[in-house]
Amino acid sequence: MPILSAIGRKSPQTRLLIAAIYAALGLGALAMLYPLGLMIAGSTKSIADQRENTLLPRFLVSDEALWQKHLEALFNESVDSLNIAFDADYASFEDVPLPPPDAPGSELVPFWREFLGAGLLPPPAIALGHYWAPQAGAFPAQLRAFRKHLRGKYGTLAALNTALGADFDAWYTVFIQPPAYLFPHAVPGATPLAAEFDAFKPSAPDWCKTVLSPEGFFRKLYLKPRHTKDIAAYNAAHGTAHASYADIPLPREFPAAASPLEQSEWRDFTANTLSPLWLKDGALDTPETRWRDFLSKQTHSTILNSPAAPMPQFAHHAQLFREHKAEIRREFLLRNYRTVLDHVLFHGRGIANTVVYCTLAVLLALVVNPLAAYALSRFRPSAGPQILLFLMLTMAFPHMVTQIPVFVLLRELGLLNTFAALLLPGMASGYSIFLLKGFFDSLPRDLYESAQLDGAGEWTLFWHITMRLSTPILSVIALQAFSVAYANFMYALLICQDPKMWTLMVWLYQLQQRSGPGVVQASLLLAALPTLAVFLACQRILLRGIVVPVEK
After folding, report:
1. Which of 6, 24, 522, 536 could cross-link 336 (Cys pair, CB 3.0–4.6 Å)?
2. pLDDT beyond 70 at 544
3. 216 pLDDT exceeds 60?
4. Pairing state of beta strands 283-284 and 209-211?
């Protein structure tokens, strides 16, 4: 029978009250969904947009925001690398605008693509982007592709370690920092893994590759620090009148006709700062010089034959971005989630341990607690209230208080790093026994008397009557046992310090320690899915718990 009759619901006051109730419930739902929306949006963030606080990530609707995230990944979170490649002086990735399709340098892009396709650059001249995210802690597309390439080539981790002389203990640790071939200390093929990485780079898509710029390196990291980035200071010291650092040339050969200071800087830069890879017979042999040699052989307009034509990387990557925009957006939308899944799936036995632990915890909770509650409810011992009070007192102490004595006890029993250590201390729950006893007390006693007259034993009474009628409360106990076991982190880490016995929560904690906010929020969302799935599967049974006691 409804609380409000059909006639009562027709009055304006009642309708207004019902509308107010629904409005309050709707506002409450929105208040709960708003933080969830912020977390979902935050799970797609990287360093470029981590300060944004919107429900809809800006890179999904703004090409410029996506462009800035793409540049951050293209240069592996290094603004210096971006400034060297583009011969610019940006303070952050958020400062880099998306150039229009007809921006300066766009007329050179077709020739630049022809130059790259001709194979005129050596492998060390190519830098791989979307590979390393040291601050975000994510596994970008090309790092995942590199690991997939190694798995396909070597099969097992042991075979890879043997072939490359490495000592990786898991696939998620397979990594090599991109060699910095602009510096003297970087030597191609210094290790077998470095040679493998250099051989892998050409297979990456064009929108993930950039070309090293020794001239940009000369201006950005050599000249500017020497003259405090002030072009006026450079002009005063050299007696020149350059408008900006981009106008300062890097001569291919020793500038015999230049000032002594320029000669000294050229000699110091080529001998001590730049890698000898870019010197040949005492002259520079760089991507820029090869690019200009390529242009000089073209029979097009005079703008192509400029002796100082820069590499049009900025315009080139802007065009590549427009061509692969959907692919880049999809990568950022899923990158953090793929990082978490890659870490979990190829990282120890976290999933298997969690499945075994949660399954056994639920089964034990559904056996031990009902048996204890049945004994208290069915036989009603004289000390029953005292026993129940003792069981309830176990809830008065936080779990942190009992962890040390439990650890010492399990260590003395030799049970550390076993499933028994995880399960035995929490096998019985005073709160669960209290709930079950109250539910069992509400069951009709006539059923037990009738069953006994028909010859039923205690096991029949317990299993076929008590347990069958207690499905709703048992589902609550099972859900509680699963939630406690699944979310068990501190105790699991204390009792099982062997990584082979770590559960999923421990592995996710290890991932979060070295990850940025985006990966952390993605891991929290993925970790919540099993609990949500179990709750949705049990909600029908939980709702029956409201109806069954009334029917009885």
Report:
1. 522
2. no
3. yes
4. unpaired
